[in-house]
Design a protein that fits this description.
3-stranded antiparallel beta sheet
Length: 992
């Protein structure tokens, strides 16, 4: 190992404990890898291997003295050299000269290392972090425990005590490696507990290949596969394990592994989710019990009930994570979403954990005069047994006495309908064992240490269940679809559902369909949602009537836009105002609870509030202004997305052929910011495009899909992109706008191709070429010809593929579109690789890469390196191919192209198989399955085939068989010729 003085090691600063303030000249030691000593970041010379063995032996004693005889035994064992004692003294003397004074000390004829600064010894840091992780896990904070264990495992730099001789070092190496594996198993176990089973499969596959006899890893792999829906593979792992143990050790799998196999065979439902330990029963004591009654028909919210219940139980039994002395959970949401109902229900369930009492107060935060904290504290103190004469006057003194009275007690405090964090801070307990549950219309982001819960509307299932409990099972069962329509019309808002159900329950002559029909009319819906003193619209009207004219205009116009939320910049476009003025207006609407702040700089309406805003716009806003506002929004998205496209693809002339815009978009200084905007705005952008299906906005909406094509290729937003493209294609067809229709069909072809739906993609591309040719619009012809060429390539129609791809190349060249030309060259390279022309394939791919590099492209360069890597593999240059594919993988990851990432993992797996490295091949194939890939079921079949080959080479034939059977089903369904090869692979296994 390199022990040159002055060598820099960037790993060292990352080992510091959180909050460490060590000086740069601190002396530091590592044993979890090569034995090293550093002063600050400077590597110190630690001498010969035997001298490093002496240093390691002293460090591992953690300050205890080692006698000379013990050190001689550690370094040489039973056959020490004749001058062993002198050698030990020489090594110690040399180390003293290198280390700080007083670090290596002589004591009682031996030596010790003393006085190390906190966090300066990697093993000590690892032990401390491992203990912290264990504590967090015991407290139920699995997320923190996993994060700390990952940091702990990151301290290893290869094999512990690497290159250090002697029996002591060898024994310690074995111990430290066993400890590392135990920590790794613990972290993987928590991965599965937190639902990360799909991600864990790849790592576990590699680990079981590296440690085939370690049964705990096999057990975790079986569980991960089972929870990933791969039951056959899970059982195959057990079969492989049983055979391996019998052959190598002559034993059966241990009881835990056998039991897991039985549970998988029985499809034990408890295996699907990790089990949570039950809270210990609390001792019942007579104390205040102020909680309001819970509603008898409480329905749903199981995830929130569980989450909040766990937090409260942890506070009540003293197992709260992170050293928190109490738990504070703050529920936020719009009016009518059920905050109080949920909080009261959870509080009642948590009562056993708080035997010393439960306090409750309505803080009236939504009213004109909220409750004063001084008054509330007086009430609480009386309920806790404090005499009136002992209650002080000032807020500070009451709060201090309140905390003192709660000290040593386990009390739950429910603070309902809070105005803001300032109102509730004096009302929070300050001692271990207590907890506070807060509800408010505002999110308590400024409440330090609070567990924040954003309560949204109900799920459709929960909403239907609540509706059924009020109306009656018989009426709903007879008209289930109508009941689903009702709760959907209510926006799944509990208050609205309760009102609708109460109206129906009181009218026995109505059917559910009658109510559904009444609510189907959006213009009348809010009027229908009232019963007795309950009314949804009344809540909204009170707020709208109090708005200033500018606020009311903003409320009306913002409600016109589809999409889950609105960014500040998009809202400014809708309102045609500067960003600063827009922000002031939106924040004032948030204060009225008519608008929600979804995140900094983002705002959203509830569905029913949006309906109310649109009704106000229809009533109070001129028709021309409504259309103009939405046109400005479309211009904003198109102009900004075109700018992102230009940053991502310098030299690509596609943006030159897009429709012009009148409203400016955003500008970005760097590509990361541009991509962040595109993916953050994806749903809103696509909703805006889908909303513009008529008039002058149609062509701009289609071009918006072109400018935002990264959303389709990433896989994350492919479905929404497809819906928008389909709607715009149909709209363009209805309007006989052949230009818009051809471009929409080109966008659809790209989506279908990425999903592996080749026939649909080919048909859309064929019609796109016909229509674009008729419209004299050359750009879609090149795009669609590229797609048709790729499809023909995948289906083995090589002559047609060459024709289409050559057409695309010539079209891009005629337009001066260099990136398009490079893309066509890379696709032609893939064609020639399939046609067994590896030399031509490499040449064309290099030409494509050269163009991308000249233009400074990043994402497209990843595609070029991918094509070059595949071509190099076909030419037998595996190491060069791996370099290109590894670079492509990194670039796809940084550009958030998950499907291309997975596809590249598949290609790397094939490369490792060709190079006889099955363990690495299996790991990359698993990562491809976990991430996804371009090509749908056809490529999934190929990935599973490669995984099966890897597993078979690793001796895991049962699991290989399971992979191949699934692959065969997929390939046969796709009509792929590769199915014949899979049948050949399966034949000897199925026959045995």
């Amino acid at each position: 190992m390199d022990d040159r003085v002055g060598h820099r090691d960037p790993r060292v600063p990352e080992q510091r404990r959180p909050g460490s303030t060590e000086e740069p000249a601190t002396l530091r030691f590592d044993v979890l890898g090569p034995v090293r000593a550093r002063r600050g970041d400077e590597r110190l010379a630690t001498g010969s291997p035997q001298q490093r063995a002496l240093l390691a032996a002293l460090l591992l004693r953690e300050g205890r003295t080692a006698t000379a005889a013990e050190l001689i035994d550690a370094l040489w064992g039973e056959e020490p050299p004749s001058q062993a004692l002198a050698a030990v003294r020489t090594y110690a003397s040399r180390l003293r000269k290198v280390l700080d004074p007083g670090v290596l000390v002589s004591e009682s004829g031996g030596y010790a290392v003393r006085g190390l600064a906190e966090g300066s010894f990697d093993l000590a840091v690892a032990q401390e972090w491992a203990a912290e992780a264990e504590k967090a896990r015991n407290a139920g904070d699995l997320s923190h425990a996993r994060e700390v264990l990952n940091r702990t495992l990151g301290l290893w730099d290869g094999e512990a005590l690497a290159g250090v001789p002697g029996p002591y070092a060898e024994a310690q190496r074995v111990r430290l490696e066993e400890w590392r594996l135990g920590l790794l198993e613990s972290r993987l176990d928590m991965d599965l507990e937190q639902g990360c089973h799909a991600e864990a499969v790849s790592e576990l596959t590699a680990l079981t290949a590296a440690y085939p006899l370690r049964e705990r890893l096999r057990e975790l792999l079986m569980l991960a596969l089972y929870r990933s829906g791969r039951q056959a593979e899970a059982l195959a792992v057990y079969a492989d394990t049983r055979r391996l143990l019998a052959e190598e050790l002559g034993v059966d799998p241990r009881a835990g592994l056998r039991q897991l196999q039985r549970r998988i065979l029985q499809a034990d439902p408890e295996l699907a989710e990790p089990s949570a330990p039950a809270a210990e029963p609390a001792v019942v004591r007579v104390r205040p019990a102020q909680l309001p009654a819970t509603v008898p028909d409480f329905t749903g919210r199981s995830a929130f009930v569980r989450e909040l219940g766990e937090v409260l139980a942890g506070a009540g039994d003293g197992t709260g994570a992170g050293g928190r002395v109490m738990a504070v959970s703050a529920l936020a949401g719009i009016g009518g979403v059920g905050k109080t109902t949920l909080a009261v229900h959870v509080a009642h369930q948590a009562r056993p954990a708080f035997p010393d009492g439960q306090l409750y107060v309505d803080l009236q935060g939504a009213g004109p005069r909220s409750a004063e904290p001084e008054t509330v504290l007086g009430s609480f103190l009386r309920a806790l047994g404090t005499a009136d004469s002992a209650i002080p006057d000032s807020l500070e003194e009451r709060a201090a006495l309140y905390r003192s009275v709660l000290d040593g007690r386990r009390v739950l405090v429910l603070l309902d309908n809070a105005k803001d964090a300032a109102q509730i801070r004096p009302l929070l307990p300050g001692t271990e064992g207590c907890a506070a549950l807060v509800t408010s219309r505002v999110r308590m982001v400024d409440l330090a240490g609070a567990h924040l819960v954003d309560l949204d509307v109900m799920s459709p299932e929960e909403a239907l269940s609540l509706f059924t409990r009020i109306v009656g099972e018989e009426r709903v069962a007879a008209e289930r679809k109508a009941a689903l329509d009702v709760v959907a019309a209510c926006g799944f808002l509990p208050l609205a559902i309760r009102i609708a159900a109460s109206r129906l329950a009181a009218r026995r002559t109505w059917t559910v369909s009658v109510l559904a029909a009444k609510l189907a009319d959006e213009r009348r819906r809010l009027d229908e949602l009232q019963a007795g003193d309950l009314a949804v619209k009344a809540t909204f009207e009170l707020g709208y009537g109090a708005l200033e004219p500018a606020q009311a205009r903003a409320f009306r116009l913002l409600g016109l836009a589809d999409g889950p939320d609105t960014s500040l910049a998009a809202a400014a476009a809708v309102l045609d105002l500067p960003a600063e003025d827009t922000e002031d207006l939106l924040e004032s609407l948030v204060d009225t609870s008519l608008l929600e702040s979804a995140a900094p700089g983002r705002y959203r309406f509830h569905d029913l509030v949006r309906l109310y805003a649109r009704a106000c716009a229809d009533r109070d806003e001129p028709p021309g202004e409504r259309g103009t506002a939405l046109s400005r929004l479309l211009d904003f998205y198109l102009a900004t997305a075109a700018g992102v496209y230009t940053i991502e693809r310098p030299g690509d002339r596609t943006v030159v052929h897009l429709e012009p815009t009148s409203y400016r978009g955003l500008s970005f200084g760097e590509r990361t910011q541009a991509l962040d905007w595109l993916f953050a705005e994806a749903q809103c952008l696509l909703a805006c495009a889908r909303q513009q299906q008529s008039g002058s906005g149609l062509r701009r909406a289609v071009d918006l899909l072109w400018a935002a094509k990264d959303l389709a290729e990433s896989g994350a937003n492919a479905k929404q992109y497809e819906w928008a493209a389909t709607a715009l294609r149909d709209a363009a067809q209805g309007a006989t706008d052949v230009r818009a229709e051809s471009r929409a069909r080109t966008a659809l072809s790209n989506v279908h191709l990425a999903a592996g739906r080749y026939s649909e993609a080919d048909e859309e591309a064929r019609r796109a070429i016909e229509l674009a040719t008729a419209a004299h619009d050359a750009t879609p012809v090149s795009w669609a010809a590229t797609d048709r060429g790729i499809i023909a390539l995948g289906q083995g129609r090589y002559e047609e593929a060459e024709k289409f791809l050559t057409t695309a190349r010539d079209g891009y060249r005629a337009d001066g579109n260099r990136p398009g030309e490079a893309n066509a060259l890379c696709n032609l390279s893939r064609l020639y690789e399939r046609m067994n022309r590896p030399g031509d394939a490499v040449t064309l791919a290099r030409q494509g890469v050269d163009i991308y590099q000249q233009l400074g492209l990043t994402l497209r360069l990843a595609n070029g390196r991918y094509a070059l890597g595949v071509a190099l593999i076909s030419a037998g240059r595996l190491s060069d191919g791996l370099v290109q594919l590894s670079d492509a993988l990194e670039m796809f990851g940084s550009n958030r192209q998950r499907l291309w990432e997975g596809t590249t993992h598949f290609r790397i797996a094939q490369l490792h198989l060709a190079d006889r490295r099955p363990a690495q091949a299996a790991q990359h194939a698993e990562q491809a399955l976990a991430i996804g890939f371009i090509g749908g079921d056809l490529i999934r079949g190929s990935v599973l085939t490669a995984l099966g080959r890897s597993l078979h080479a690793l001796g895991q034939s049962d699991r290989a068989r399971a992979c191949w059977h699934e692959a065969l089903s997929l390939l046969e369904r796709s009509g792929a010729p590769e199915a014949a090869e899979v049948r050949r692979l399966l034949a000897p296994l199925d026959a045995s």
